[in-house]
Amino acid sequence: MFASIFLAQGAYAQTVPADAPRSWGEDIVVAARRDGYVIRDSGSATRTPTPLIDVAQSVQVINKSLITDQDRRTLADALVNVSGVVPTKPEESALAQPLVRGFPAEIYLDGLPAFGINALADPTSLTGVERIEVVKGPTGTVYGGGAGAPLGGLINVDSVRPEDKLGGYVAFRAGSFATINPYADLNVPLGGGVAARITGEYQSNKSWIDEVKGYRWSIQPSISFQLGDRTELLLRGKYDRRSQLEYSGLPAAQALAGQVAASAFPGAPIGQPRSVIVNKLITAELRHKFSADLQLTVTGRYYYNKYDEYGSFIYPDFIGADPATPTVYPIFPINLPASVKEATVDANLLANVDTLGGHHELLVGFNYDHTNYDSAFNFDFTPVGLLDLAHPVYDLAFGPALPPLSTQTDTYDTIAGYVQDQATYGRLHLSGSLRYTRFTWHRVENATNVAYHNVSPRVGATFDIVPGAALFAGYATAFRGANQLVAVPGYNVKPETSRSFEGGLKLALGSAHVWGTLAAFELTRRNVPAADPNNFGYSIQTGEQRSRGFEADITWEPSRALSILANYAYTEAKVTRDEDATLVGQTLARVPKHSGRVAAHYRVLNGSAKGLSFGAGVTAFTAREVFLPNTVAVPGYAAVDAQASYDFGRFTVTVSGVNLGGHRGFDTYEYLSPVVIPIQPRSAYVMLKARF
Questions:
Q1: What is the model's pLDDT at position 41?
Q2: Where is each TonB-dependent receptor plug domain found (predicted)?
């Protein structure tokens, strides 16, 4: 018999100590405690509920307690708690992906893809999020879809599920930059094994950047049906809408030198339509236990995304400022409409068997994905006027509809099968998986019609050196279509591939109250598009990039009252091969060599101040290159955040602050050329929550 593991959200106490030797003959029961940050298991790396100490890959989990305590409202805000991750800012989500270990990562929702060429599918609201799991390195054996498997890492967002108890809350948050932010979570048992839940959020706000303002709202209903003692059906819906006046960034060198106004809007705001992102998802999940040792899971989703982007921007690489007036730039309007329709299904069978002298968790699965992607590039080479970024006067009009210059109409089809074995032989835990994928890609505009057949392996092992401490090592691979390649007609398009080696130490020292991962890694990405030296404006696949480094993620919870987390990453991400020899050895954009965070939260559990909690954190980066080729780097900085809450009866009041030191500086920003965005200045927010 395999161990029965009953995990409650934010679990803390166990009937068996966390660092006790694990045996498949014993039951482990975990009692609920919602104020700790320690999560002992993960399902994202292996698609099975596996203790993190047994996973031969670096995986970090952010639970709802941490999100709530730190008053995190966006995915980018939450991900600073994980080493080696460069989140995508909400303002640049149309043109950038989050980075893990220096390479693009993808955002999955409840274990299924949402076409990951950018961060448009990130959760607009964290109100409906149960936890966020970051799997570092390629994940090409049990995941795929859209244009292929994640090459650099996977950010899997797990949504809340309906429960069998009536409950919920309503909350209202307000603060700097005219932020108005109501949100709510309501769970209702309907009887007969049926429960429903709905979460929702709305936010409107201005910005520390001139002219910029926007809103976002999200609603996420779900309903579960207990169809018998062994069968459960879960249906989820999700609708997100975001709207904001598009910001396109300031010229990096001049902004860093203080030659332009940090708050300047580099565009033509009069008549410029807001950029709008709409996401719609319908997901169904069926779980059936044939026995305690055999379970079937079938999950399907339809995903629809529409993005209508309207921007106005400077383009120094095309037409720069007149040297006589170096801060006066021509402004160009642009429109980038796009839509995605994706249907995906994953079915897998999990079996627990004792054979060959050990215990085995065998997973056999099938995956199908069909994605249609349509986009256009509408642009006019004639500027709408001139703007002095040092002394901006916003009197430029966006102008009429823009002429279409190009379109992209892609269809991707994935058919894949995978098998995985997680074997335990006493203190040794072995894992191996293999995925066969047939991926077809058709592009209408240049008659691209290719089919890839790929076998992706992954192997790993962990060894319990002492109870609660294990050494691990792993090798993983992934591949995806080169969907961002612009090649001459007839070019032999190859898939992009990645491979990873990593090893280190996993900790689950319950007696010392310390959990975490120390890992060293090398990650290589091949067949990267590089400029075609013989055809201007086109690319060929001769590039290679490599990332090496060390990461540490540690959580210390000496008592229920105190949680301390710390992370650090050393990342060396460089170009190792390119048609342009001058690029070899240059650093990949947006990736700091050193980055880290330390945060603590203390809860008063007894006495007259019971219900009070407070915390603070410091996030720091070293310099980051703005663009490739490297021409300018954004200096590093450290930012301080803090939070305080007080629970009284059914109510909670929370006050939080961002960038309390008032640091003024810039971050990298992804928008067509070397540009930057000013960091959020000192800001404060207050929230009132009522539970029922």
A1: 93
A2: 52-148
